[in-house]
Amino acid sequence: xxxxxxxxxxxxxxxxxxxxxxxxxxxxxxxxxxxxxxxxxxxxxxxxxxxxxxxxxxxxxxxxxxxxxxxxxxxxxxxxxxxxxxxxxxxxxxxxxxxxxxxxxxxxxxxxxxxxxxxxxxxxxxxxxxxxxxxxxxxxxxxxxxxxxxxxxxxxxxxxxxxxxxxxxxxxxxxxxxxxxxxxxxxxxxxxxxxxxxxxxxxxxxxxxxxxxxxxxxxxxxxxxxxxxxxxxxxxxxxxxxxxxxxxxxxxxxxxxxxxxxxxxxxxxxxxxxxxxxxxxxxxxxxxxxxxxxxxxxxxxxxxxxxxxxxxxxxxxxxxxxxxxxxxxxxxxxxxxxxxxxxxxxxxxxxxxxxxxxxxxxxxxxxxxxxxxxxxxxxxxxxxxxxxxxxxxxxxxxxxxxxxxxxxxxxxxxxxxxxxxxxxxxxxxxxxxxxxxxxxxxxxxxxxxxxxxxxxxxxxxxxxxxxxxxxxxxxxxxxxxxxxxxxxxxxxxxxxxxxxxxxxxxxxxxxxxxxxxxxxxxxxxxxxxxxxxxxxxxxxxxxxxxxxxxxxxxxxxxxxxxxxxxxxxxxxxxxxxxxxxxxxxxxxxxxxxxxxxxxxxxxxxxxxxxxxxxxxxxxxxxx
Length: 623
Fold this sequence. Notes:
Helix content: 55-70%
Oligomer: single chain
Distance between the termini: 119 Å
Number of helices: 14
């Protein structure tokens, strides 16, 4: 691992600690070098001082040596010179001898002296001791035996000269040692300065290299973090900055990663919500185009495939009595899960009024209708289908083991159930309103507006059709004798006969009062006569039950071959009905096309009663 890689692998705290350690180490090294240089210089100066002191002691010994000889010579003049006292001379000689020996003894203790010089000092010290002792002896003899002393003086002078030479050579050697010490001190001072300079340069270079490496590693790491942050800012939320480090930069990278993860989760939530909203909008648009309940169920089947291609689903809707539920839609690919709920309130989701999710059919709190199926461990989502607080059914989705519902799928199923409930309720309410608007409330037959609409449709189709106008005979008399409740019952019986007799493509509507209009598709006048005869027979058979008093009806017939205008056919059939009434009632008459010329001046003229003598002969609706 190179230094750059090693510096990059270090934590920020380790980098800063290393940087501080490098600075401290450099300062310590410089301090140690300065201390060593100072110590060496102090030692050199101390050695110089000691050598200078040794040289001074040597000179002092030389001077004492000379003084000692002078004292010995002075002792020879005792008694001849009045100022010289014998005791003083003896004391001076003893003191000088002792001082000479002491100086050389002190000089022998100097460790700074070379070994050869120390050996010379020791020899000179012994010679000085002998010289001092000779001086004392000569002084005593000079006091007592001056002639003997004078005879011993040459030998003493020889010792003196020998010691002079030794001290001179010793002083020269000390001087040489002193100069060498001075030169060595100067050389060491120069070396110390050079070492200090080189050490400073090397320390600065090493510290600069360490700082550069650490700075480069920090900048590289910060550059990586900056690159990751820029990529995240540009929308690449998959980039990550954390490398498992536990330093400050690692914490910063982890914070950047958490920010990216939070942004990614937030964007995923927004995308999920957008997908859910888009699904809801598409579902809403599809349901808005479904005007009939079967169309709504078809949309539900298609929506199930968008929710999931692998989960069976079914829509159970109750009938108008809200006591029984039947399957209205199922998944077109994987079919229905087969929920065993038969009525709305058998379903726990309907009872609770909210979506219910079961993780497994084996759970204690699982719905009982989930148990006993082919796959025991089955999860399910049940969403009540309701409108304005009234439950109409349930949307049931199930999942086998290993294929659970995702949170998005649960939301989609919930949304599907909610919107299906609103749309089915709206369609049913609209159909009920349309039915009420298009249906006669008493008989349940289409009212006059619906009949006219169907008549226009038949006329615009260009196909054959017939128009039959029928009227109950003596209906006002029936009301007067038996009451309006009986009259209403008679109208309902006649409406039931019409519904049970006419074909699926035909229409029977209440035109007004006791008058009805029949629209027979794909029929001409002859076929209409056959239908009317069947109606008369069925009416007679129905009245034999005795629920209402017996009555009859009259019919007027016209077909599309007589006119292409539907209003002309209505008037022709009305005129034929007039003829049937005039001919004695309880019969049918086919209109004559020639009567069209009279329609402009005589439309809906009063119908005179044909049998004025009959006690029950009354005009009906002004006829």
